[in-house]
Design a protein that fits this description.
The chain is α+β, with helices and mostly antiparallel strands and 302 residues long. The chain is 20% helix and 26% strand. The protein folds into three domains: 47 residues, Roll (Structural Genomics Hypothetical 15.5 Kd Protein In mrcA-pckA Intergenic Region, Chain A), CATH 3.10.290; 98 residues, Pseudouridine synthase, CATH 3.30.2350.10; 117 residues, Pseudouridine synthase (2-Layer Sandwich). The strands form three sheets. Strands 4, 5, 6, 7, 8, 12, 13, 14 and 15 form a nine-stranded mixed sheet that branches.
Length: 302
């Protein structure tokens, strides 16, 4: 791909992450270090600043055999065909293996359920994974069984045409019935495990919210994603003065409910099937522990 004036000045890895929603920033950096991404035919570094007229080439190596243990973990499969799945992930389950979490992940369960029928585009530790939700967030995820389905769905994610709606309970009473938070998100320089709103090495992020129900000190909201950045809803709502209840990273230190994570649920996903060409949409209501908190709050309002 050729770099025009608009893209000139961007870091190579940031540019590629913006242009390729199916490749994570860490995967891109690894490809650069291994020489699989070149600029003008030459190896370079992740922090190379692009110039107008530069030619960027990407060669994706064939996926390695995943050294992942297949585990017979029950899956709540909402939809499945020969090309893809829609899975309802429970709170507490990590999506894919990483340091410290090599077992019990969604990928371990998918390996047992699908065997070799998973896309290899995202590398050996993320077979079939198109997008992620946090360990302590529950809800719907898309999984690709082959590369064609993966590329088709990734393109919809990149074009922001995928429907993704979440339900969240936040601290405080939001006065507006709806609103939009448009603020770029990047890595927190003081704590690299956290994300924050920043102009430095960030990516644009847009979250639309709609008030569903108000309580004395809380608000139930529905969030619609225009972009899908790491921790996007959690960061946006927290910086807007309404952190998600139970969020151990961006929330309040003192919580009145005994929770194992944030009350955030990916309730709806809609997409055009990458092979069949028809629009499909699926929903799953909030889990029982989330509903129990709402029942307590509704009881106070009587």
């Amino acid at each position: 791909m050729l770099i025009d004036a608009e893209k000139s000045g961007k870091r190579l890895d940031v540019f590629l992450a913006d242009e390729n929603s199916d490749l994570t920033r860490s995967r891109i950096q690894k490809l650069i270090s291994e020489g699989n991404i070149t600029v003008n035919g030459q190896r370079t570094k992740s922090n190379y600043k692009l110039r107008t007229g530069d030619r960027v080439d990407i060669v994706l190596p064939p996926p390695k055999d995943a050294q992942i243990k297949a585990e017979d973990i029950p899956l709540d499969i909402v939809y499945e065909d020969e090309y893809m799945l829609v899975v309802n992930k429970p709170q507490g389950m990590v999506v894919h293996p990483a340091a410290g979490n090599t077992e019990g992940t969604l990928v371990n369960a998918l390996m047992a359920h699908c065997g070799d029928n998973l896309s290899g585009i995202n590398g050996e530790i993320r077979p079939g994974i198109l997008h992620r939700i946090d360990k302590d967030t529950s809800g719907l995820l898309l999984v690709a069984k082959d590369d064609k389905a993966h590329l088709g769905l990734s393109e919809q994610i990149k074009e922001h045409s995928l429907t993704r709606e979440y339900t969240a309970l936040v601290h405080g009473r939001i006065k507006e019935d709806s609103g939009t938070i448009d603020a770029p998100i990047g890595r927190d320089e003081k704590d690299r495990k956290k994300m924050t709103i920043t102009q430095k090495n960030s990516r644009n992020a847009v979250t639309h919210f709609f008030v569903t129900e108000r309580f004395d000190k809380y608000t139930l909201v529905r969030c619609s994603l225009e972009t899908g950045r790491t921790h996007q809803i959690r960061v946006h709502l927290s910086k807007n003065g309404h952190p998600i209840v139970g969020d151990p990273v961006y929330g309040r230190k003192k919580e009145e409910f005994k929770l194992n994570g944030q009350l955030l649920h990916a309730r709806k996903v809609g997409y055009i099937h990458p092979v069949l060409g028809e629009y499909m949409e699926f929903e799953r209501e909030i889990p029982d522990y989330f509903e129990e908190v709402l029942k307590k709050l509704r009881g106070r309002n009587i």
